[in-house]
Write a structure and sequence with these properties.
The complex is a heterotrimer of chains A (about 280), B (about 800) and C (about 170).
Chain A lengths: L6 E4 L3 H11 L3 E4 L5 H6 L7 E4 L9 E3 L3 E4 L4 H5 L2 H6 L1 H6 L6 H4 L4 H7 L5 H9 L2 E6 L2 E6 H4 E3 L2 E2 L6 E7 L5 E7 L9 E9 L5 E9 L6 E4 L10 H14 L10 H24 L1
Parallel strand pairs in A: 1-3, 2-3
Antiparallel strand pairs in A: 4-5, 5-10, 6-7, 6-10, 8-9, 11-12, 12-13, 13-14
Helix pairs in contact in A: 10-11
Chain B lengths: L31 H5 L16 E7 L5 E7 L1 H4 L4 E6 H4 L6 E2 L7 E2 L6 E2 L5 E7 L2 H10 L1 E6 L6 H4 L15 E9 L2 H7 L2 E9 L11 E7 L4 E6 L7 H9 L6 E5 L13 H15 L3 E4 L2 H7 L5 E10 L5 E11 L10 H4 L13 E9 L14 H19 L3 H8 L8 E2 L5 E2 L4 H12 L1 H13 L3 E15 L10 H6 L7 E8 L5 E5 L8 H13 L6 E4 L20 H28 L6 E4 L2 E4 L5 E3 H10 L12 E8 L14 E15 L6 E11 L6 H20 L31 E4 L22 H13 L10 H12 L1
Parallel strand pairs in B: 1-14, 12-13, 16-17, 22-23, 29-30
Antiparallel strand pairs in B: 1-7, 2-6, 2-8, 3-7, 4-5, 9-17, 10-15, 11-12, 11-14, 15-16, 18-19, 20-28, 21-22, 21-27, 24-25, 25-26, 28-29
Chain C lengths: L2 E2 L5 E7 L2 E7 L5 H8 L18 E4 L2 E4 L12 E3 L12 H8 L9 H14 L5 H8 L10 H19 L1
Parallel strand pairs in C: 2-6
Antiparallel strand pairs in C: 2-3, 4-5, 4-6
Helix pairs in contact in C: 2-5, 4-5
Classes of the chains: A alpha+beta (about 280), B alpha+beta (about 800), C alpha+beta (about 170).
Chain lengths: ~280, ~800, ~170
């Protein structure tokens, strides 16, 4: 289980990366933490002619907070979890990130790498989508921001063009409260299904808006606006009804691990539980 | 256990620091220091011969396909590639290996004209390094003509199923019925007849170290030398030599110093030993191959899958009077020796823990387009006790008797030991009622049942499962021939016994070394051996070095050698005790001569040979080294040197014409209880309690015993909850990585409580029984029983994954 | 910006266990293979080569990392610690001794990776709970021990280290 031969560049600047991408296009892969790409290379599921290593590329780390919070693409998951500002301002990440992989993978794995990889069950794409965040892409032509709603296109497929790289992730500050619930066969596995919730309540404590996101159900994370359910307090009945309604609108994957009916079931149950978690937090 | 720990270093000659006996103490392991510092050497750490080239194996992407052509020219043109070997070339130097079953099917480690499972070797590339060898694999062009595949064993039995082996004409490679007692009458007279269909999946213990082989062919004279992590049984060595067409002394097998787990699985290394021997011969270079994880999961080995029906006859009071088993065994693409041993290992203990006298067994051996099965922890016991103990819990429910009570009514009485089973085993010792007393007490069974009632009153899904087993240990090499009819056996040579060999030596500096034939893979054999020899010679375990590598040209070994069948603590220890006693006797004779006293007056204690009751003593080293330095002046009848080779066998004869056999030396016992709660919304199972009571006879090293027991449980847990070699209906393999084949991690292991009710075995010198299989054989039954109890339905099967459990719930509701 | 050709070997220098090493590797060579077969540090074991089992875990600049999903060229200039760094000659360190005391290993193949993870973990979490230890351990597969002894060993080592720090 060894990779095909590839050329290797340890890029020191974003400019270098973009030059190489322009030249190599589809034949190049960007190596971040290597938690997904490494196995794919070793299994020869990825056979690039060039690997561009971002691990010592300047300008891809760090956390800045203005309106939104911006994390550099190469911010390690462990670094993010240890950042009090990020965890306070984006509480959904604080709830979700302990479910990502393991201690030994979060130490190397990056935020940008997970989002670029776009596994339909992964936690970070789900959180970004639920919060309505954006991915910042840069190419030789300049940079653009793509809403998470448009970024994830399918299994391991995104809106990133071959000449583009992710430089940063923008996490909006959302007021309200949050819930995250995941079921996996084993601790640390990719989720069978995960539900992420952001809810806004009005002055009377009734649901006013927010989003419910689901991972591991369709071929990409999906999120649903909660405005249409606004008007009543989030209790078990409402949570059940909302989640069941939303689960019914999904078109779940059907594979040997879990069939569509089960994924839809989990979507409803975990959606409800995530809503209740968020509501409980709002009430406390 | 801390109170039993004793220092084993530098204690020599320090009065007051010597225990009465090292055996029975939790002596820290001799193996650990090398492993903890990274200095132990495993097979992939070895370059035992100069000029090594590296192999990679091209494998079939099809479950069933004709191979119409192989074009390796592009691969051969790659710089650094030394050669490409195909099945056709291998066949010139390697004959197919027959099974004990009379079938024309022969096992070959590489496909020749037809591939029969995904992952079956098709060609071998040998190159400068593994990276390059894998590059060359991508350049080999194979034309396949895909065929329909036979994946499900029951479907594969049908007349119109695709046939794997044309020479056999059918996928049923064997079919035998064995009847012990008079089951027919018992069923006729039964007050109740209960029946349960069952299925247990193929899974595997997946040791963390994969297979590794270095094969070197030398000519003049022709000889194969192989370094590997093969674990035995060495009964396969003569089969390998036969396949290569050489006498046994021209196939030299050497095992690595350390082996990274096996649980039986590394028996399958044998296939690659013969394959790479042929490759080394064809290409004329020494070849190293290290299996990768993908290869291991897809193509190494698996536990036998089994489906079938258990039917039992009960008297009105719940006495089990007869059992009938109909088993369909999913053997994979070949009957790879020592298969079908997995099917017959339990044949003479089909009564389980019970006194049932009449047993009817029908076994089908079915070949399917999947990897061949082989040894795996619990070997044959997991499948058998899964069927029997699922049946017992189900029968209790049908008869409206508490599952513990039903078992108690049928246990073999403690006063009935030694107990001859209907199948011919002589069970050595046990007190099953007391074991269950202990189980009930530790689990607080009555309170647990109350808790179940309360939970159910709240609308929760809560279940309790019980399972119990005997643990046959130290295999009679003759049992495998139960796969033959008595007439067939009469024509073949007789087979019996359970050989073990050991060498104990003292060198000219006084160093004591023991050489074992047990090829351990982490079970602490060196430590326990040192404890035994230290006791016999009055020295410390640290004074004893233990060599666990086998070299078939220089080590004592026999067909029974290897690490399987819980062999160490019942068979190997007997050889160690016998050998150590012989050395002790010799040292006492020499000491008596030097101390000028009677031999009976000499004791070996605290590193000395001492006259009992006096302080007149000589150091043991001083006494023993005379055998090297001063052989002319040894007492009469004492041979120079100290180098004792001891081979012992258990008195276990081959099968009788009535198809009975004493399969094993000892029969331990295991009693498990599981309590689970199920989340009705998600199907998630929470194991609230798991209690396991064991009779392992005398505990030779309690800490090692505990380690084996919990390790065995977690293997059973994996099989019960997560693990399956999954194929789709076309035979594509879906469990090729550790992200798809799910082994339990530290987060999935529940609290696990262990109790001991040891009854010393009269069959072994130390009173120990075997214990390696343990709850690996029972956890699938106990946990599935608990889930069946919670769901209120018996027709479920492992692995108990969340989607399956939820599906069963929906079906029950509907 | 240097583009290393995939078809040739390149000099790779790193500090391993406090000592400077140089070896040669194609860009595709796994760090684990480099440590083992190029530098001769066979204490690091390879169990799956796809980043799941954790057997090959080493510390790269102090960070626990699977060395099968990192490439040797990436570690050029890095400081790496492997299992060979832990003992002081023949003397096991507190963590290794706790593994021995608690029968936390059987075959020992997965042990090196677990020791390295636990080393970094205890630095960051000097007084862990059992759940924290299990959570950390869930990034490793051990097929022999059932994890029980490993959990106890790490908790014991934490206690020993805590005592050491208090003293």
């Amino acid at each position: 289980m060894k990779p095909v031969a590839f050329d290797y560049v340890r890029a020191s600047s974003i400019e270098e990366v973009l030059d190489l991408l322009l030249e190599a296009g589809d034949d190049a892969v960007l190596l971040a933490g290597g938690m997904s790409l490494g196995p794919m290379l070793n299994l020869r599921a990825a056979t690039p002619s060039l690997v561009i290593d971002l691990n010592r590329t300047a300008g891809l780390g760090g956390i800045t907070a203005n309106g939104a919070v911006t994390t550099g693409a190469m911010l390690r998951q462990t670094q993010a979890m240890r950042d009090d500002l990020l965890m306070t301002v984006v509480p959904l990440l604080a709830k979700a990130m302990p479910s990502i992989g393991h201690y030994q993978t979060r130490s190397r794995g990056t935020l940008g790498g997970s989002i670029a990889h776009a596994d339909p069950s992964a936690e970070l794409p789900l959180c970004l989508l639920t919060l309505g965040g954006e991915v910042e892409l840069q190419s030789k032509d300049g940079s653009r921001r793509v809403a998470a709603d448009d970024f994830f296109e399918g299994v391991l497929t995104t809106a990133r063009q071959p000449t583009e790289m992710i430089t940063a992730i923008h996490w909006p500050r959302r007021s309200g409260s949050f819930g995250f619930v995941e079921e996996a066969q084993r601790h640390g596995d990719f989720a069978l299904t995960a539900a992420a919730v952001w809810i806004e309540l009005d002055a009377t404590g009734s649901l006013a808006g927010g989003r419910l996101g689901l991972g591991g159900v369709e071929d990409r994370p999906v999120a649903f606006d909660l405005k249409e359910f606004a008007g009543a307090p989030v209790d078990e009945n409402l949570a059940t009804q909302v989640a069941r309604d939303i689960a019914g609108r999904t078109d779940p994957m059907d594979d040997h691990v879990a069939d569509a009916a089960y994924r839809r079931q989990l979507a409803g149950v975990l959606g409800k539980r995530a809503l209740m978690e968020a509501a409980g937090e709002a009430g406390s | 256990m801390a109170e039993t720990e004793v220092p084993t270093d530098g204690s020599s000659g320090k009065p007051g620091r010597w225990p009465d006996r090292w055996i029975g103490k939790s002596v820290p392991r001799k193996e650990d220091a090398a492993l903890l510092t990274g200095s132990a050497r495993f097979i992939d750490d070895m370059e035992p011969v100069a000029g090594l080239r590296h192999a990679a194996i091209l494998r079939s992407p099809y479950a069933h396909a004709k191979i119409t052509s192989i074009d390796a020219s592009a691969a051969l043109a790659l710089s650094g590639v030394y050669g490409v070997v195909t099945g056709e070339q291998v066949a010139e130097y390697l004959r197919g290996i027959p099974s004990v079953v009379r079938t024309p099917i022969r096992f070959m480690p590489i496909a020749i004209d037809k591939a029969r499972f995904v992952g079956e070797p098709v060609a071998v590339v040998v190159a400068r390094d593994r990276y390059l060898a894998e590059d060359a694999l991508d350049l080999i062009e194979v034309e396949y003509e895909p065929l329909d595949a036979a994946i499900d064993a029951e479907a594969a039995m049908a007349d119109d199923a695709p046939v794997l082996h044309d020479v056999a004409g059918s996928n049923v490679a064997g079919h035998r019925t064995i009847i012990n007692g008079d089951p027919e009458s018992a069923f006729d007279e039964a007050a109740h007849v209960v029946s349960l269909d069952f299925h247990i999946q193929r899974y595997s213990s997946t040791p963390m170290e994969t297979y590794g082989v270095v094969a070197n062919f030398e000519s003049v004279p022709d000889r194969y030398t192989v370094w590997s992590n093969f674990q035995g049984p060495f009964v396969i060595q003569p089969l390998m030599a036969g396949a290569l067409g050489v006498p046994g002394n021209r196939l030299r097998l050497i095992t690595a110093q350390a082996s990274g787990g096996s649980f039986g699985i590394k028996q399958g290394v044998a296939a690659y030993i013969v394959l790479l021997c042929a490759v080394s011969r064809i290409l004329g270079v020494p070849v190293k191959w290290t299996e990768d994880r993908l290869e291991h999961l897809a193509a190494s080995s698996a536990a036998t899958g089994r489906s079938g029906t258990v039917t039992g006859a009960f008297a009105a009071d719940g006495e089990l009077t007869a059992l009938r088993f109909r088993n369909i065994n999913d053997m994979g693409a070949f009957l790879r020796p020592p298969e079908p041993a997995s099917v017959y290992r339990m044949q003479s203990t089909l009564n389980g823990c019970y006194g049932v006298q009449n047993i009817h067994t029908e076994n089908y051996l079915v070949v399917t387009n999947k990897v061949p099965v082989g040894l795996n922890r619990g070997y044959g016991g997991t499948q058998f006790f899964y069927s029997l103990e699922r049946f017992m819990d189900h029968a209790a429910r049908e008869l409206n008797i508490d599952p513990v009570d039903l078992r108690r009514r049928n246990f073999i009485d403690k006063d009935a030991f030694p107990y001859e089973t209907p199948g011919g085993s002589v069970m050595d010792a046990g007190d099953y009622q007391k074991c269950v007393d202990e189980l009930e007490a530790r689990a607080d069974y009555q309170a647990l049942k109350k808790r179940r009632d309360e939970k159910r009153a709240e609308g929760k899904l809560y279940g309790i499962g019980i399972a119990c087993a005997v643990e046959p240990s130290g295999s009679n090499m003759g049992y495998v021939s139960l796969a033959q009819t008595p007439e067939e056996r009469a024509k073949s040579g007789a087979k019996s016994g359970a050989n073990s060999s050991v060498v104990i030596s003292m060198d000219p500096s006084g160093g004591v070394t023991v050489q074992l034939d047990s090829t351990p893979n982490g079970q602490g054999h060196a430590t326990v051996t040192a404890q035994i020899v230290a006791d016999a010679l009055g020295i410390t375990p640290d004074d004893v070095d233990v060599i666990t590598e086998i070299d078939t040209m220089t080590s004592p070994w026999s067909i029974g050698s290897g690490n399987y069948g819980n062999r160490f603590s019942v068979a190997v220890t007997d050889a160690v005790v016998e050998g150590a006693d012989r050395v002790a006797r010799k040292l006492k004779i020499m000491a008596a001569d030097q101390l000028e006293c009677a031999v009976e007056d000499v004791e070996l204690v605290e590193g000395q040979a001492r006259i009992v009751g006096s302080d007149k003593a000589l150091s043991l080293t001083r006494v023993g080294t005379q055998a090297h330095w001063n052989p002319v002046n040894l007492p009469d009848g004492v041979e120079p040197g100290i180098y004792e080779t001891t081979t012992v066998t258990a008195d276990l004869d081959g099968p009788t014409p009535e198809d009975t056999v004493a399969s094993s030396v000892t029969y331990g016992a295991i009693f498990d209880l599981a309590a689970v709660e199920i989340d009705a919304e998600t199907g998630r199972i929470t194991i609230e309690k798991y209690v396991s009571v064991h009779d392992v006879g005398e505990l030779l090293n309690p800490k090692i015993v505990e380690g084996q027991i919990i390790g065995g449980f977690v293997h059973g847990l994996g099989g019960a909850m997560f693990e399956e070699m999954t194929y789709d209906e076309d035979g594509n393999f879906l469990s090729g990585t550790f992200a798809d084949y799910l082994c339990p991690t530290a987060m999935e292991v529940p609290d696990f409580e262990v109790g001991h009710v040891p009854t010393p075995s009269p069959k072994t010198k130390l009173g120990a029984k075997g214990l390696g299989d343990g709850s690996s054989m029972l956890a699938p039954a106990a946990l599935t029983n608990a889930v069946a109890d919670a769901l209120g339905r018996a027709d479920i099967s492992p692995p108990l994954t969340m989607p399956k459990v939820w599906r069963w719930l929906q079906e029950t509701k509907a | 910006m240097t583009r290393l050709s995939g078809n040739s070997k390149h000099s790779v220098r790193m500090t391993v266990n406090g000592r400077a090493h140089e070896g040669y590797a194609e860009p595709r060579m796994l760090l684990a293979d480099f440590l083992r077969h190029e530098l001769g540090l066979y204490g690091t074991h390879v169990g799956c080569e796809h980043g799941v089992c954790g057997a090959c875990t080493v510390l790269i600049d102090g960070v626990p990392s699977r060395s099968c999903t990192q490439y040797a060229v990436q570690a050029d200039g890095a400081s790496i610690e492997t299992v060979e760094s832990l003992a002081d000659g023949d003397t096991l360190n507190a963590l290794q001794a706790a593994f021995r005391n608690n029968h936390a290993l059987q075959c020992g193949f997965c042990t090196a990776g677990i020791l390295m993870s636990a080393t970094a973990f205890l630095e960051e979490t000097p007084a862990p709970t059992e759940l924290q230890v299990r959570e950390m351990l869930s990034g490793h597969i051990c097929r022999c021990t059932g994890y029980d002894g490993i959990v106890r060993a790490i908790l014991e080592a934490a206690g020993v280290q805590a005592e050491g720090k208090a003293a």
